[in-house]
Amino acid sequence: MNESAITTFDPEQQKHWAEMAETIKKSASQRRGKRTAPSKVKTRSGGGDKSFKYVDRADYQIWLDDNFPGWTIEEYKVWTERSVTSSSTTSSIQNLDKTITTLTKSQAQDIPMLFCVSFMLVVIESGMAKRRIPCIGTASVAEKELGRDNAQLLKQKYNSATTEAYKMGCNWLGAFFDLRADVEEREKAASPATPEQFAKFTELLNKVPVAYKDETTKAWNKMNASTADTFIKGLEDKLNKLTPKE
Questions:
Q1: Which of 170, 89, 96 is nearest to 135 (CA)?
Q2: Which overall architecture, per CATH, does domain 27-187 show?
Q3: What is the pTM of this model?
Q4: What contacts 185, CB < 8 A, 6 or more positions away?
Q5: 104 confidence band (pLDDT: 50, 70, 90)
Q6: Residue 57 to residue 77: CA distance in whole angstroms
Q7: Are 133 and 123 in contact (CB under 8 A)?
Q8: Nearest in space to 228 (alpha carbons), one of 194, 203, 204
Q9: Pseudo-torsion of CA 42, 43, 46, 48, nearest 10°?
Q10: What are the extents of the domains in the chain?
């Protein structure tokens, strides 16, 4: 009969790992808690008359230098995907120029096209643990961009995709976290209450006196995913005050 081998670790090693985990957790929390310097924040317009805050790729790389000296990237890949054909071009960073120059005008008939970049961001966390963060970035070519010089257009898309890949990796590590949190809050404000929030509200509504049910429901209908939790907490507190203490 085969038995699975169980590896045991001595208490000192377990203590060392626990201390290392606590240090890493604390460092990550500190990085996420830092506010982005206003001088680094830029704004661009998006769909639906919305604006988005962002920082340049150089700022991500400087942030890595400051927080993870000696960081590097591995397994770098670049490829394109066309909307009409199923073929794709994959290359390493060394073959990028060759890849771009082989995309002739006849191939450009397949545009809109997606330009993709992926790599592993490798850092040493708190001087203790090596981490490999998968990063991927994409940039699409819109129809309105047709007619431009192909090589120049694709180089621009390559740069955009690379920046997105750095952004993904740095965001995982806590870079400029306040900008992402702001985006998530705006998304919540534009979204209806979640099924879980609605279920909790329905549960509480059953406890609301009949005279106040209509008023409470109308107030709830004005809530979104961002405000629903606060509304539910307030309603719960009011109901607790109405419930006689034993």
A1: 170
A2: 2-Layer Sandwich (3.30)
A3: 0.55
A4: 226
A5: very low
A6: 18
A7: yes
A8: 194
A9: 160
A10: 27-187, 192-242
Peptide bond into 112 cis (omega under 30): yes
54-72 pLDDT, tens digit each: 778 888 888 889 889 989 9
222 SS3 class = coil
The pair of three-digit structure tokens given for residue 68, joined into one six-digit string: 């993870």
Considering only CA atoms, which of 68, 54, 67 is closest in space to residue 180? 54
Give the pLDDT score at 8: 61
Give the residue from 66, 72, 53, 57 showing the smallest Cα distance to 27. 66
In Å, how far are 13, 144, 192, 217 from 198, measured between CA atoms? 47, 42, 10, 11
**Six-digit token pair at 92?**
């390493």
